[in-house]
What does this fold into?
Amino acid sequence: MKPGMTISCVAHAAALGFALIAISASPMDAPPMETLPVSFISEKDFSQLTKGVKNAPELKVPEQKPLADKVDSEKSVDQLAPKVADKPAITTDTSKSSPAPKPDTPKPDPKPSAKADTKPDAKPEPQQQPKPDPYRPDQIAALLKKDAAKEKASENSAQQKQNTPKFDANQVAQLLDKREPQRQLASAAQLNNNVGLGAPSGPQAAQLSQSEIDALRARLTQCWNPPPGVDASTKIYVTIRVLMKPDGSLAAPPAVVEGSPSLLGPALAESAKRALLLCQPFTMLRPEHYQQWKDLLLDFNPQIMLGG
Amino acid sequence: MNPADIAQSVTPLTSSNLSLFHLFLHAHWVVETVMAGLLACSVWVWAIAIDKTLLFARLRRSGDHFEEAFWSGQSLEELYKSLAAEPGHSTGSLFVAAMREWKRSLEGQARSFAGLQMRIEKVMNVAIAREVENMERRLLVLATVGSAGPFIGLFGTVVGIMTSFQSIAASQNTSLAVVAPGIAESLFATAIGLVAAIPATIFYNKFTSEVNREAQRLEGFADEFTAILSRQIDERG
It folds into this structure.
């Protein structure tokens, strides 16, 4: 037993010493980790962020970040003008940013030279193009006036009539462009910190509250006079689409969207329509949430409305 | 909580390095006891393993040596005289025990051959049992350490993790830097348990098979030698 014990002790001491030297030489230090500050915002803050301000400061175009959307520079305003009198906003948007990335495109040059001969006063576009002008709703009227003047001028000049019917694929694409004018603020490569005009549909964060829905349901139950033969045990329903005015009254006669196939169906639908017409205006719906309740689908289900 | 404050509170904990020595010193006393006990077990296991290895090597060598001399045609009386002083282990001691009984029976006046073969068999069985017992001694320690070592280490780990969770609760900070040292030190206890248990199990299996092999060899020799002596007895009787 003696030699075994001695050898074992010596071997263990050697192994421990080796471990101490080998492992302690590179201490397993954990580097201090980076902390990431996180802040919570309430729903109210969020809706205020997305709301936008009416008196937002005018955006300086040169300070704007490069836009992520590819903006086409092929089309000119005067080509577009006779056809799309109702979409001036898009044209100003595209022409506004085109000079900045491409200052030396060959296209703008021939047009002023070609038209300068015929009508020098009917072309505000070449001057308008370099001017950085943010989209403003009040300018639409001014642009429309200009377009009207231009149309008259184009009728007078025979040369202009030859040019206008030229087909341009980019023009078609622009006509089909149904996106909101504000999209460029959101589609920038970098986030823009300036206060914008807000999201297109306003503060979506404000939802139709449960109490308003309950109040509407209670009111409809009150007004509704179910047709004879319909009681809480009748398995029948009808869905009615209601278009509202901001004051809570009906903007259009209520229309049946769908219903269960039953002999009582038409009578039920008529009674539901009568209830809606009788009870308007629905003042329990608050006007600030009008976006949520201007188009409602209401279910008339006797099992719920009479039974529950 | 200010991020800067968190960073400051975290750094002193991480600055304590996780070397083996620090791991041992910072541990809970229960964990330290477990670690020390397991280290002692490991030392003991290896001592037994070395001892048994030497023992079996010696047994095999002396057994080979003896059987070579036994089957060489040498006179059994001479072989007995040369081995009687120092019977050694293994088959040599068997031979000496059987020969002693044989001689005693012949030297006596009675010359009783009647129970001689049975007596020789008994003597040899006793000698085999003594040899096997000598070989199996302390093998149970290996078995115990092999089976209980991981559990002892696990016990240390559980205690260590409990204390590290208590330290988390005390510091009210769940960052990894607070948890890591405690868990590392408690896992160290399991590591030592495995380090002690794995060789113990391996050596136990190895030595058990060696003991079986030696016992077979002894019994085989005993049967052969009994047959030889029985033939002698029948010739004389």
